[in-house]
Amino acid sequence: MKQPARILTIAGSDCSGGAGLQADLKAITLLGGYGMSAITAITAQNTCGVYAVEVLSPEMVAAQIDACVGDIGVDAVKIGMLGSAAIAHMVADRLEKLDVPVVFDPVMVATSGGVLADADTIAAFGRLMALATLTTPNLPELAALGGEAAVRLKAKALLVKGGHGDQPVIEDRLIGGDTEQVFTSARIDTRHTHGTGCTLASAIACGLGQGMDLPAAVKRGSDFVHAGLLAAPGFGAGHGPMGIYAGA
């Protein structure tokens, strides 16, 4: 039996299960990968908001990464919420020693509006964008990073997610060097969008770890998220989770 691709998510925990490393591990598993995690922060959140955040030490996050890489090994990495500038720089130090695909989701604000990255942490994102195979900002994140032109100078490849726009057809633009590819999907009128960015980035990382090229991994990831939005179970009073579970 062929071994599954080993995918490491470096991200925060969402106790309500809709986003963060919980969403990452669900996506990785359902797409046939073997998921591992290095927890950067513990959050108390649900569909209505983020109520408490406790960031782990850089040393503890590094120990988790080293434990996974040193024993199980890794075929691709997904980066989500980092929690501090010190963790961001430590993760960059570790990634410089690995030769595997990396997908960086520059998480700054939760779907519910909770702030998940301060100015120093955002400033440290530059190192990660330069190392990552793909950086996946949504439109507000792209603006906070200085705009598309500024990010293109730092990132190897960029997936500009159009979900925060208001057009009836969502356009996600994959930009690498002088080439651009557009992936379109019909907008779904739903409040159940918690964890879309986390799920997409981890799905793409899983595809890259499985040997897919970047456009194919993005296309499968986008289709996976679209199906999850259609299958949302309706949980929560706010921005509910997608239907990322077996049988969806």
| CATH topology annotation | UDP-N-acetylmuramoyl-L-alanine:D-glutamate ligase
What is the CATH architecture term?
A: 3-Layer(aba) Sandwich
Biggest beta sheet attributes: 6 strands, mixed
Poorly predicted tracts of residues: none
Q: Strand order within the widest sheet?
A: 3-2-1-4-5-6
Q: What's the alpha carbon Rg, rounded to whole Å?
A: 16 Å
- The residue fraction in helices comes out at 25-40%
Describe this entry's structure for a reader.
The chain is α/β, with parallel strands linked by helices. The protein has a single domain (about 5-230), classed as UDP-N-acetylmuramoyl-L-alanine:D-glutamate ligase. Helices cover about 35% and strands about 25% of the residues. The radius of gyration is 16 Å and the shape is globular. The mean pLDDT is about 90. Pfam families: Phos_pyr_kin. GO terms for molecular function: ATP binding; hydroxymethylpyrimidine kinase activity; phosphomethylpyrimidine kinase activity. Pathway: Cofactor biosynthesis; thiamine diphosphate biosynthesis. One of its GO terms (cellular component) is cytosol.
